[in-house]
Specification:
mainly alpha; 62% helix; five-stranded mixed sheet; single chain
């Protein structure tokens, strides 16, 4: 006799009971992608995004000539290369560039969950770490911009986790003569070496991983025991094998980076360091002022983009754990994060919030481990309320980034760059479409301020696949403000129409140069913010 079919509700409950782990993982990934992909282009193209996407388009068009072009401006080329397949598949170049950052952010979310699992076997906290990454305002913003920083955050954390598991596993395996533990340790070190090399291929400043690696020794309880018991040989052996593991990552990863020497543009990687970092002599002139200013900014990034509630709760719980009898992994994790930020705090000359964002996932992991370490039943309601409060605040901030990004409470440095200053791309896409329509029937000369950045690269990226691009010449007029047309004025007769695309506060034409007629103007949000203007000169 055929058995009666079970009701769908019973089948669903049985499915969840047998497959809940995979279902929750799948659900978390879906929530992440929905959060990151929804209204992905609601922030217009930003200056650095335009530069990177345009470099990728040039490399896609002429690989032999432009594959390493980014290195001339101090940027390693991996992200540029990875954009190329997406640019060929997707019509919107901004979506293509930002989608790459979204995928790296997904990797960062997974690594945060894995790192949490190293310290607690309570799976709900592994998922909590992933959820907090999803609804972290700073990480969400970073994962939705076509910059190198999303990849950096992922590779920094992956390198550290691989070094942590691999180096300590190798050291412990050698001491206990456990071949399987050594074998797994070497595999983790191999992955960490690759990750470190790729991190340097993304941004040379990811050398900041090195101070973090030194903190791995703090997690090895054997070292303290050997020191107290004066077992110097055992102490040297344990430290030695940990150093072998860390050295493997540094040497192999550094060798991978050194392969960039095959390009003649390799020296260009080091040319821009002075733009962003103080020299030792500059630092020694006013060390307190520099450190206090950068520390204040670091704290603003942590509390604003990581969340003041989570950051303060993590610090308080870490202090309680450090003073109590429990293990002190939370404190060591926070010190590892601080080790990454410390060189920027000491020597940072031009510092943007995104430079500190790799620290935030470590704070999230420390927060989750702190909660997992609370065993007192009386504090259950406190933990629940704290988790709800942190997630709720994060969801609200993410909602604001989706709906009104210019009112999402971003730090002034990002607010100005993304929405108010010349670096903001408000009106760029519309201007490119407008000029493309004009180029269907006329030969155009389009002049813009600057040589690189939002203008003219922002126009170039949207016109890359347009047939009308063949009927148009886009040229930069040099360092703003725009005061005259320079040598291009002699070429006006060769074109049917001449256009000038400029920011309103950077237009200061000399009396002999007529600005023509203002045809289009795109306002940026914010009182007193300059607008993007399109002038027809001829």
């Amino acid at each position: 006799m055929k058995a009666a079919k079970k009701p769908w509700s019973v089948r669903l409950l049985e499915h969840l009971a047998n497959n809940w782990l995979y279902d929750v993982i799948g659900l978390v990934v879906i929530v992440y992608l929905a959060n990151r992909l929804y209204r992905l282009t609601n922030i217009p193209v930003f200056a650095d995004e335009a530069i990177y996407i345009y470099w990728a388009q040039l490399a896609a068009s002429d690989w032999g000539r432009y594959a390493f072009a980014s290195m001339n401006d101090g940027k390693t080329p991996l992200i540029i290369w990875l954009m190329i397949p997406l640019l060929k598949l997707l019509r919107d170049p901004l979506v293509a560039g930002r989608l790459l950052s979204v995928m790296f952010g997904l990797g960062q979310m997974i690594v945060a969950g894995v790192f949490t699992a190293v310290f607690t076997d309570k799976k709900r906290y592994h998922f909590l770490a992933a959820i907090l990454v999803i609804f972290c305002r700073g990480l969400m913003l970073n994962n939705r911009l076509a910059l190198m920083d999303s990849a950096s955050g992922f590779l920094v954390m992956l390198t550290y986790v691989c070094a942590f598991v691999g180096a300590l596993g190798l050291s412990l395996g050698r001491e206990e003569k456990a071949a399987d533990l050594q074998h797994r340790g070497w595999w983790w070190l191999a992955l960490g070496s690759l990750s470190f090399g790729l991190a340097l291929w993304v941004k040379f400043s990811n050398l900041l991983i090195l101070p973090m690696l030194a903190t791995i020794f703090l997690f090895d309880d054997r070292l303290g025991d050997y020191w107290r018991q004066r077992q110097w040989r055992a102490l040297a052996r344990a430290c030695g094998w940990t150093l072998v593991g860390l050295g493997t990552i540094v040497i192999i990863g550094g060798s991978l980076f050194a392969t960039l020497k095959l390009s003649a543009s390799f020296p260009g990687i080091f040319r821009r360091g002075g733009d962003f970092l103080y020299t030792l002599s500059e630092f020694s002139d006013r060390p307190v002022e520099i450190m206090l200013g950068n520390w204040r900014f670091f704290w603003q990034v942590l509390t604003n983009y990581g969340g003041i509630i989570m950051v303060m709760a993590t610090i308080i719980l870490a202090a309680i754990e450090f003073l109590g009898p429990k293990q002190r992994e939370v404190v060591w994790i926070l010190l590892a994060a601080l080790a990454y930020a410390l060189p920027i705090i000491l020597f940072g000359k031009v510092v943007y919030p995104r430079y500190y964002l790799p620290v935030i996932p470590f704070v999230i992991v420390a927060f989750c481990i702190s909660l997992a370490n609370i065993q007192t039943a009386a504090l259950f309601n406190f933990k629940t309320a704290l988790i709800i409060l942190v997630i709720g605040a994060g969801m609200y901030n993410c909602w604001r980034l989706h709906t009104l990004p210019h009112q999402a409470g971003l730090l002034p440095a990002d607010q100005e760059q993304l929405f108010q200053e010349w670096s903001s791309g408000h009106g760029i896409k519309q201007t490119a479409q407008f000029l493309a329509r004009k180029a269907r029937h006329h030969r155009l000369l389009v002049m813009t301020e600057g040589h690189i950045g939002t203008l003219p690269d922002g126009l170039q990226i949207y016109l890359w696949k347009a047939q009308e691009r063949n009927n148009m010449r886009i040229v930069g007029l040099g360092t703003p403000p725009v005061k005259n047309y320079g040598e291009f004025a002699r070429e006006f007769a060769d074109y049917d129409q001449v256009w000038l695309v400029v920011n309103s506060h950077r237009l200061e034409l000399e009396p002999e140069a007529s600005a023509g007629a203002l045809i289009k103007e795109y306002a940026r949000p914010g009182r007193g913010a300059p607008s993007l203007q399109v002038w027809q000169i001829k």
